[in-house]
Amino acid sequence: MTEQIIEKIEKIEKKHEKKETLRDSIVLKVYRANRLAGEPGRYDSVEVPVQRWTTVLDALLHAKAYKDPSIAIRYSCRMASCGSCGMKINGIPRLACYTKVSEMEGSTITIEPLANFPHLRDLVTDFSQFFLHHRNMQPYVQNEHADIKDREKLSEFVQKPEDLDRFLQFSYCIKCGLCYSACPTVATDTKFPGPQALSQAYRYFIDNRDSAGKGRTNIVDDKHGIWRCHFAGSCSSVCPKGVDPALGIQLLRGHLLGFSKNEKKIADLQERLNKN
Ligand code: SF4
Ligand code: FES
Questions:
Q1: CB 73: neighbour CB atoms within 10 A?
Q2: Closest ligand 1 atom, CA of 178?
Q3: CA-174 nearest atom, ligand 2
Q4: Ligand 2 pocket check for 78: Cβ under 6 Å
Q5: What is the location of CATH 3.10.20.30 in the chain?
Q6: What number does the ligand 2 atom closest to the CA of 97 have?
Q7: CA-based diameter of the chain, in Å?
Q8: CATH number of the domain at 18-125, out of 3.40.50.300, 3.10.20.30, 3.10.180.10, 3.50.50.60?
């Protein structure tokens, strides 16, 4: 399974591999609006110098430092770890710190706030609902035998490598919201938990240390829940961490439908998903 995950990550990296175009400068067409002040939206164009390794976040920070300090951006780690710099770059949800300017086609890059999130200002959106969906999945291991009063009886939870493989890829999620932004179902139903939360429900459901399986399936088995996924697959194609939320959703559905114990059916499903 670990080899399969590595293979999948390599496939995703290959898919995202772009031809580089070297330039001295680029024009950023940045969406601007302060929703709280009721401002209508507009696009401001700013030209910034770039080098081969300049990322879209670097370019935006240059624009902010030297051209227009009022551009609102959210970012922190600059290394695709914190998940806070998600934005629409040339129409696709991406991490600005993980997107090189040299990989973009054309001499202008259009940068807009993530879709499916309430807009606050310029490139900043409100993640409250997204995090609420995540919290609703109870994203922590629950184990009725873990709270042992007698310290003498405490012992480790044994987990084999194959147990870990069942959920490892889903634990790479950095909660950047790109999958949520790309999801066509979230666009029409904000009560739908979305690919991030549902794949996290699967991550804990399949963890052999967790004993809240039934409770978790009850959370997602709802008219706004897991059955609303149309399997568009856009969530998995935009994920910057190689997580395959669409796979997690289908596997969790398999458990709800009761064919989860059929290893062959799961292998077939996995193969079909890998082909997409
Ligand atoms: S599954 Fe991927 S795209 Fe979705 S929030 Fe997690 S890291 Fe981001
Ligand atoms: S700044 Fe942290 S993910 Fe981009």
A1: 19
A2: 3
A3: 3
A4: yes
A5: 18-125
A6: 4
A7: 67
A8: 3.10.20.30
Confirm or reject: Cβ of 241 under 6 Å from ligand 1: yes
Task: Determine the distance separating the centroid of ligand 2 and the alpha carbon of 275, expressed in angstroms.
Answer: 29
- Residue 239, ligand 2, Cβ within 6 A: no
Q: Is 84 in the pocket of ligand 2 (CB under 6 A)?
A: yes
Which ligand 1 atom sits closest to the C-alpha of 245? 1
> Each residue of 14-66: pLDDT tens digit?
766 667 778 899 999 999 999 888 889 999 999 999 999 999 999 999 999 99
What is the identity of the amino acid at 169? Q
Backbone angles phi and psi of 117, in degrees to 5? -120, 140
**274 pLDDT exceeds 80?**
no
Write out pLDDT tens, residues 116-140.
Answer: 999 999 999 999 999 999 999 999 9
Domain with CATH 1.10.1060.10 in the chain: 127-275
CATH fold for domain 127-275: Fumarate Reductase Iron-sulfur Protein; Chain B, domain 2 (1.10.1060)
DSSP 223-264: TTSGGG-----HHHHH-TT---HHHHHHHHHHHHHT-TT-HH
Which residue has its alpha carbon closest to ligand 1 atom 2?
A: 239
Residue 258 sits at the vertex; the CA angle it makes with 255 and 264, to the nearest 5 degrees, is 85
Quote the strand ranges of 4-57, DSSP E: 25-32, 42-49
Neighbours of 39 (CB within 10 A): 12
CB 231, CB 237: distance < 8 Å = no
Cβ–Cβ under 8 Å, residues 200 and 235: no
- Whole-structure pTM value: 0.86
